[in-house]
Amino acid sequence: MTRKYLLRDVSPLGDGTTDVLLADGVIAAIGGDAESLAGDDAVVINGGGLILLPGLVDLHTHLREPGREDAETVRSGTRAAAMGGFTAVHAMANTTPTQDTAGVVEQVWRLGRDAGWADVRPVGAVTVGLEGERLAELGAMAESAAQVRVFSDDGKCVHDPVVMRRALEYVKAFDGVIAQHAQEPRLTEGAQMHEGVVSAELGLAGWPAVAEEAIIARDVLLAEHVGSRLHVCHLSTAGSVEIIRWAKSRGIDVTAEVTPHHLMLTDELARGYDPVFKVNPPLRTQRDVEAVREGLADGTIDIVATDHAPHTREDKDCEWGAAAFGMTGLETALSVVQETMVDTGRLTWADVARVLSTAPARIGRVPDHGRPIAVGEPANLTLVDPGIRRVVVPEQQSTQSVNSPFGGRELSGCVIATWLRGRATVMDGSACDESVVVSS
Ligand SMILES: NC(=O)N[C@@H](CC(=O)O)C(=O)O
Ligand SMILES: [Zn+2]
Ligand SMILES: [Zn+2]
């Protein structure tokens, strides 16, 4: 039996205020009868001004287990997810061993279930060992207990067009989707950062926008040709937004994600040679940042996904050229979206629920998440205080790694509480310095 929670005067999707009762794992009442049905034993949260959202769903998380438990584990990564307001995460396949068999994806799924912080949906590798040659056992992963629906060689691009075509065709049988890390490998050999004015000045090898755009253009045409569903990971350039806009206008079944860091940060940050800003795809220009914000606002880009990529100090605290690509993001994603998109008037909180919960749940075919806030629905929810301002301290986060590009920055908003099937995974506002009054 989970406890009952009475949320007084909360604002579902930021629209009006009401009382919400959580009991027996579901939303038991909204409005009038919530108070009377609560009884004496409910935990009461006085939520004046707090926004209630469906639990966030991340389509792109690196949990690093099995293989790199020194950077993150399923337990530490999903705890970070809960702190960030997430109730479900997709665990990327670039683990060691690779998540390319039913056995490995079931292991990751089970670790997530046992940890209990958030539902873990393992992503299956497209090719054996992410090597881009032979298709992995996609059907067996789909039919396993992990119920894999998203397949990706993320970290690497499925660059052989025949392999990509076969994968797109194959996953139709079980309503799966191929999530492509769009990076033309020959155009990015040795690349260290975005190719442009700053890379030329710093003398670092450039990762041109066309290396991303060429693969996206090819893949939307392949998806159209075989009538399959395609998802584009961490889209980062203005040109990519244009291609997706064109593809959608033709009716091609493509979805796309942008990361919080590509919504906020630019390649100017590389000037300090601090590898905390080294990521794949690289931070781009202000013009690209404007384009991805606009694409997210007009629906061209479907979702925000974190690409939470924890790395150890050994792998990050070195010279730029030797450092690993990647940055953490689960505990700052919602704040970055609030600051770049809500506080600027580009998205409403209902839109935030769409881009961070409903749409990723739909793309990943995740049951019980991304649902409306309505009586009878599973109580997968997060409660947010948009009024808080907080400085990010990576060492104090729940993720085991400290490679946050937002360390030392002040951000808006903080998660106060998160519920997974009616059980509180975050309750004391521990993700921020302030908390709402909880009495029981
Ligand atoms: N984003 C990154 O820079 N790194 C990711 C791989 C990836 O998402 O491509 C990682 O696994 O570290
Ligand atoms: Zn990637
Ligand atoms: Zn990734």
TrEMBL record:
Binding site for substrate: 62-64, 94, 280, 311, 325-326
E.C. no: 3.5.2.3
Active site: 307
Cofactor note: Binds 2 Zn(2+) ions per subunit.
Catalytic activity: (S)-dihydroorotate + H2O = N-carbamoyl-L-aspartate + H(+)
UniProt binding sites for Zn(2+) 2: 154, 181, 234
Matching InterPro entries: DHOase, DHOase/Allantoinase_Hydrolase, DHOase_cat, Dihydroorotase_CS, Metal-dep_hydrolase_composite, Metal_Hydrolase
Limits of the Dihydroorotase catalytic domain: 50-237
S-adenosyl-L-methionine as UniProt keyword: no
List of residues binding Zn(2+) 1: 60, 62, 154, 307
Pathway(s) served: Pyrimidine metabolism; UMP biosynthesis via de novo pathway; (S)-dihydroorotate from bicarbonate: step 3/3
Necessary cofactors: Zn(2+)
Flavoprotein found in the keyword field: no
Keywords: Hydrolase, Metal-binding, Pyrimidine biosynthesis, Zinc
GO-annotated molecular function: dihydroorotase activity
Purpose of the protein: Catalyzes the reversible cyclization of carbamoyl aspartate to dihydroorotate.
Assigned protein family: Belongs to the metallo-dependent hydrolases superfamily. DHOase family. Class I DHOase subfamily.
Record PANTHER family: ALLANTOINASE
UniProt cross-references to NCBIfam families, sorted A to Z: PRK09357.1-1, pyrC_multi
This protein's name: Dihydroorotase
UniProt gene name: pyrC
